[in-house]
Amino acid sequence: MRQRASAADPLLASFGALLDVVRGLRWRARRASRIAVPGMHPSRVRGTSAEFTEYRPYRQGDEVRRIDWRLLARTDRAQIRLSEERAVTPTMIVLDASASLAYPEDISISKWRLACELAIGLAAVAHAGADPVGVTIVGETVRTLPPRNRRGVIGELIRVVAAVRASGDAPVAPAVHAALRSAARVVVITDLLGDADDVLRAASEGVAAGRDVHLLHVIAREELEPAASVAIVHDPEQPALRRPLAPESRAAYERAFATWREDVARRWLASGAAYRVIVTGAEPAAHVIRRIARDEPMLAPTTSRA
Amino acid sequence: MTFLAPGFLYAALAAALATIALHFVATREPRAVALPTARFVPESTTHALVRARRFSDPWLLALRLLLLLSIGAALARPVRVPQRERIARVIIADRSGMPASDTEVRDSVRALYRPGDAVVAFDSAAHYTTAVDSLPPAVTSVTGSLSAALVRAHAAASRIRAGTDSIELVIVSPLTAAEADRATPRIRATWPGRARLVRVASNTTRHGVAPTVTWNAGARPPRSVARRVVDSVGAVTAGTDVLVAPFERRWEFPRDSLRGASVIARWVDGEPAAVEWPVAGDSAGRCVRSIAIPVDSTGDFVLHPAFLRLRDRLLGVCGAGATQPDSAVAASLATMVAGSGPLARASAFPPGPSASSPFAPWLLALALVAALLELVVRRRASGVES
Fold first, then answer.
1. Domain B85-204+330-348 CATH superfamily
2. Exposed, middle or buried by CB within 10 Å (0-12, 13-18, 19+), for B284?
3. Which of A11, A154, B87, B104 has its C-alpha lying 20 to 30 A from B116's C-alpha?
4. What are the tens digits of pLDDT across the range A166-178?
5. Is the residue at A36 inside a domain?
6. pTM across the whole model
7. Measured between CA atoms, how close is A151 to chain B, in angstroms?
8. Which member of A105, A253, A260 has the closest CB to residue B42?
9. Are B234 and B333 in contact (CB under 8 A)?
10. What is the ipTM of this complex?
């Protein structure tokens, strides 16, 4: 445990500054919530709050007390007074902690660090809007904190995330399925180098069920621009996959990787989910969180040779 | 110590340098690094290799250098350098019928000869020898060829060049004009130095005596018989003179008629066209000449320069068709053969083909041992790597 804590120290130190930067941000849900608990997001429930919206004729089954008696007295028609409700959006963050996220090995610039900062920052923003937030971390073991909106839940999330080291190759799709059952907004932070098709299928089902699904596709700059020296590269999740990366094969690699990224983006956007590509080192995590909260487009991933 | 063929040693040194460079350019498999997107790298069956700038396999390199340098040194034929003070001689001894006395030639050669010298005995051909006592007997029936002797002298100089500073060409001969031909001046010019002439008396019995010539276009020449089939021939040669013209060949010299005779002209197919034989019992050296070359006296054929040269040779004095010796011609010949300037430097001659090195076999044996050791070390190294 002591070793884990010391390894997570850089993460812990960075989260404090991140929480300060994102304080005050509000993250509106992209879809109206079906939950009746009052909150800040639009709700599909038409209630009786003070914010009047419209009248509609009384139907059998409506509560009698919701009839506007004054209008009935003037017009002799029974009308129900409707108002726009605001509700909370339980938010679940699914964080991919597979071995491919621990790249590059320098943790200060790794995909895992960026993913952790995005998870904590978005959780803090959602929690600031009174939304219950939870997290599922899919590493060698699956660790889940259900959505809560009590005080101190962000600190609890930080401790859980900081204690995890990215390793293993567990599938993310089951965690996405579980998150969609317990939350109206699901944020999946992954590099899509595992069960990408299953994750997309689960997300599509969630979107069809009215969930607000976000996918944050994390890419390392070193994956876009591998080192120029000749090397035997291997997949940390598939040690048997070893291939020589030489200058003559680099162009083919970049073409194949770009084609795959374009295909992934096209399929995710077609699913109705919010898809964003986030490259390490391209923007600070706080800027990325601000763009997500404001539903602004991300910076397009570019390479220095582009 | 010097090398007879240093080019091989230079080539071995170049190969050794290349070997050293190759040992510095070792290859290894590049380092393995993690790349989560490795699946997008195209599959390749070739192995990626990178150069490692480090010195590898010092023992293997040492053995390979030893192997290369041993072979190169063996092929370069190292020899010990003796004291470079001697002047070696190439003595050309005339063994043809031109000298008056065979003893005089032998005595002259014996007086000139020193150990390490070379002797070239020549008649119509030239022979090389290193022993003065092994001179071949004189062939009195032929005229000597100075050109052949000079060519052989070059080869002899190449054989004795090791350990000498200069090579002196000594010619023991009467130097008659008959012994020179048109190529002689050019061949002599290739000898890079002056020559010493030791003139011996010429065989006057064979020179200066006019022959009795029978050259009748219609009658049968003496000692000849009529051909069974008269044919035609395109040319006739006498010495260095050639006359190209259509001749009707009516006569031929039987083999028996040539006994004791000398052929002084031949048809182009080698058949004798004119012969001479000495008059028996005549101490003056007179001879009889029979010419079976029909000449059409009509027309301007007999005015042609080639015919005039052939005529002079056929009508010349006795002595295998030699032209009449002329003191002026002999003097100019002697001047030409003697040349001028210093003696020829030994380094001007290429090493002889049979020059041997006493070290070469040992160096080749050393190369063989190095090759075997290299094989053992290489196999051991590959066994360790595997």
1. von Willebrand factor, type A domain (3.40.50.410)
2. exposed
3. B104
4. 999 999 999 999 9
5. no
6. 0.49
7. 38
8. A253
9. no
10. 0.80
